[in-house]
Specification:
single chain, alpha/beta, six-stranded parallel β-sheet
Length: 460
């Protein structure tokens, strides 16, 4: 198994791992993909594009007006300080996890913690690709773990990254298929795993073209372990050339369970509801629902947690334009701030800081999970709201979370309530507040739908 391969010599500082050579052939998938082989022109074109674009990308990053721009630039291009002065040089074996954004990083955490528990002499490196992921991770970084931006897929940056970190294993999340990074790590004998693997139907169609199909086949062949997040994901991966896949396991269930928190005193507020991870356009629907419901319940509190916190001020302006009193939470504990001021302050609160959604789910009776109301949506992790014992509502545009919604509703119809538009959202919230027994049923069934998931054990 993948775990056995990387555990044999994990007790010493340097780990040597034999690797299984991935195979590829344009007709039989039976020959090694190399620069000198049949895919020579594809790889040379891709690598040449990165080499040509890198100076322009470097100049753009350097001109960004952010204090952290130099750090982002240096990490993206793997421009590290000399070994003698670097603070991040590790003498212990490095297990490298790579995810792109907040959701994928959250899914990586339970498996990362399991690895460190099994191999206490190891050090974890978690690379990510977005500013929001970096901010989210800074609040949760476990011991013996280094966080940084992943290198761009520029061949020179990839080489510098691998030279510096010399990982003994690489664990990629979901669909992070970067050709230069994967091929370079494989060529150095780094065992690779693709966990929570998921290629969407749209991406599958794109990868299946005659131009790209040989490349994705070759990349998937470089992984020693591919663990899909669902059976349909496994079928799409096999259609793209994955010879063998492990039993499906969705780490986002484990991420939801591990991030759950207990509500603050006096406990879950039965007239509070939260719209979490909302995107542009969804706040209007939430505010319309609030206006309709506020006349019925004077103790109603509506909390909006936008997916991108920098939008908080504009959402407040949107509310005020509708004649709704609104305020942004202050301080490091938004829940405590609302509890302290909810009796005298506005009944609509906007959380403009990252990392507080689990606490809001814990405090609120109902949760609308955003990114799902309009066709452009990709959904978000409904299990996070479910484990907090919220009555869970979402739209029908759930993207990669569609199967999670189906699985949860498969345990009980009341686990997730899907709505098609703003009017249905208001009707749904109104129905739940008017019927406490129905509200309680949906809270219980939502939590039960994810409580038995043991994704980390399945992956392990």
């Amino acid at each position: 198994s993948f775990a056995l391969r990387i555990s044999q010599d994990m007790s010493i500082a340097s780990l040597e791992c034999n690797h299984i050579t991935g195979v590829f052939d344009i007709s039989t998938l039976g020959k090694e993909m190399t620069v000198a082989g049949v895919l020579d022109w594809r790889l040379r074109l891709y690598r040449g594009a990165w080499v040509a674009a890198s100076p322009l990308l470097s100049a753009w990053l350097k001109t960004r007006a952010r204090e952290s721009s130099s750090t982002i630039h240096n990490q993206r291009f793997a421009l590290y300080p000399p070994l003698s002065t670097a603070k991040d040089v590790q003498e212990r074996p490095v297990i490298w996890f790579h995810a792109v954004s907040v959701g994928e990083c959250a899914a990586a955490f339970p498996l990362l913690q399991r690895c460190l528990a099994e191999w206490p002499n190891a050090h974890a490196l978690l690379t990510h690709g977005t500013v929001s992921a970096g901010l989210w991770l800074q609040r949760r970084v476990p011991p013996n773990t280094t966080l940084q931006y992943a290198p761009f897929d520029d061949p020179n940056a990839v080489a510098r990254f691998l030279d510096r970190w010399n990982p003994q294993a690489g664990i990629f999340l979901e669909s992070e298929l970067w050709p230069n990074l994967i091929l370079a790590a494989h060529s150095r004998g780094v065992p690779l795993a693709l966990v929570n693997a998921n290629i969407s139907p749209k991406s599958t169609a794109r990868w299946s073209t005659s131009l790209l199909m040989p490349i994705v086949c070759a990349l998937l062949a470089k992984f020693d372990l591919i663990c899909p997040q669902s059976e349909s994901s496994a079928q799409r991966l096999r259609a793209l050339g994955a010879d063998d896949t492990a039993p499906p396991a969705n780490l986002k269930y484990a991420a939801a369970t591990s991030s759950a928190v207990r509500p603050q005193p006096p406990g879950k507020q039965q007239r509070w509801w939260v719209a979490g991870s909302t995107h542009v356009g969804e706040e209007e629907a939430v505010l319309s629902a609030h206006q309709r419901l506020a006349s019925q319940w004077i103790d109603l509190v509506t909390v909006i947690v936008p997916r991108h916190p920098e939008r908080a001020a504009s959402i407040c302006e949107l509310a005020e334009a509708r004649g709704i009193r609104c305020a942004q939470t202050e301080g490091a504990d938004p829940v405590a701030h609302i509890l302290k001021n909810s009796s005298s302050m506005p009944k609509v609160w906007i959380v403009g800081t990252i990392g507080h959604l689990p606490a809001m789910y814990a405090q609120c009776a109902i949760a609308f999970v955003g990114g799902s109301l309009f066709p452009s949506g990709r959904g978000h992790n409904v299990a996070e709201a479910a484990v907090a014992e919220c009555a869970v509502i979402c739209g029908f545009h759930t993207g990669p979370f569609k199967e999670m919604v189906y699985e949860m509703c498969g345990t009980h119809y009341a686990a997730v309530w899907q709505v098609a538009n703003a009017n249905e959202l208001a009707n749904c919230v109104e129905n739940l507040f008017q019927n406490p027994k129905h509200l309680k049923l949906r809270q219980q069934k939502a939590k039960a739908a994810v409580s038995g998931e043991n994704a980390v054990a399945i992956v392990w």
